[in-house]
Amino acid sequence: MVAKFGGHGYGMAILFVVIGAILGGILGQLLTGVEALSGVMPYLVNTFPVFDTSAFTINLYVIQLTLGLAFAPNLMSILGIVIALILFRRY
To answer: Which of 6, 21, 60, 72 has the fewest C-beta atoms under 10 angstroms from its C-beta?
Structure first.
């Protein structure tokens, strides 16, 4: 039995959210050069650190792994997440 979110699996919902956040962030960075939006873009691309874990290293003698995670969205990436969830609900 697969867990469902709006008729689809949670994996597909997470994929939509991640892609929406990435595309929203990229769009925000692309729009920073637009002269007409120069007054509002600094607010839309300013990041807000939610959490940041310091990197740690696991030495397995054959492979050395360094892992860390940070989540610092900006308003454009949050807008991308909202649009992705709306599109996912229609999907």
So the answer is: 60
Nearest residue to 78 via CA among 30, 45, 55, 31: 45
Per-residue pLDDT at 3 exceeds 90: no
User: What is the distance between the alpha carbons of residues 12 and 77, in angstroms, rounded to a whole number?
Assistant: 18
What is the distance between the alpha carbons of residues 85 and 89, in angstroms, rounded to a whole number?
A: 6
Range of the domain at 58: 4-90
CB 17 within 8 A of CB 84: yes
The C-alpha atoms of residue 87 and residue 16 are separated, in whole angstroms, by: 8
Domain tally for the chain?
1
**Residue located via tokens 């959490």:** 51
Q: What is the pTM of this model?
A: 0.73
Considering only residues 3 and 29, tell me which one the structure prediction assigns the higher pLDDT: 29
